[in-house]
Write a structure and sequence with these properties.
By secondary structure, the chain is mainly alpha-helical. It has one domain. The chain contains seven helices and no strands. It is elongated, with a radius of gyration of 18 Å.
Length: 179
């Protein structure tokens, strides 16, 4: 596979995932993924289960498509790292399963699965911020990343946008009355 073909396939995968996520998160069912804590009463933990399971299907589609690509040798390591499962995946799956059994947000908020999910989001956020800080210390911007092929810098830069993380991951899906 040539680099141009790889970039085309990479962009198809990431564009498709982005579109699926945007469509779902802007739907009434997907709103639970973006809800603020004072809006939780508009949804149930089972709504969260459905939302997290939909995210899982999007991720599986991405990983299946990525596995079908035979990247050029010069980006094989990048490809493997970019499309690797993160600890967030297991935490999301465990929380989805637990959310389906929760009577209410108070109960779900106090579970080990929610604590693990919050910790995984916080860890991902910290890793994103640290990567950007390291890149900035080295004097590079996302348009000039020597470890990423120039054809992919736009997509990678978008993926490494840390603004999508909640300000306080430890408060995700925490009802206002919870400690």
């Amino acid at each position: 596979m040539s680099m141009a073909e790889y970039v085309e396939e990479f962009n198809k995968i990431t564009d498709s995932a982005s579109l699926q996520y945007q469509e779902f998160s802007s739907s009434p069912q997907g709103g639970v993924l973006l809800v603020t804590n004072d809006q939780l009463e508009q949804f149930t933990p089972q709504d969260l289960q459905a939302g997290l399971e939909r995210l899982g299907r999007i991720e599986r589609d991405v990983l299946e498509a990525a596995a079908a690509i035979d990247p050029p040798e010069e980006v094989a390591e990048f490809h493997a790292l970019y499309f690797a499962l993160s600890p967030y995946t297991a935490a999301r799956e465990a929380l989805a399963a637990r959310a389906g059994m929760a009577a209410d947000w108070e109960e779900l908020s106090a579970t080990p699965e929610m604590a693990a999910y919050r910790a995984a989001v916080a860890s991902d956020k910290e890793a994103c911020i640290n990567l950007i800080a390291t890149t900035n210390r080295e004097g590079t911007e996302f348009g000039d990343m020597p470890w990423v092929p120039s054809e992919l810098t736009e997509a990678v830069g978008a993926a490494l946008d840390c603004n999508g993380y909640p300000e306080n991951p430890e408060d995700i899906f925490r009802p206002p009355s919870s400690p």
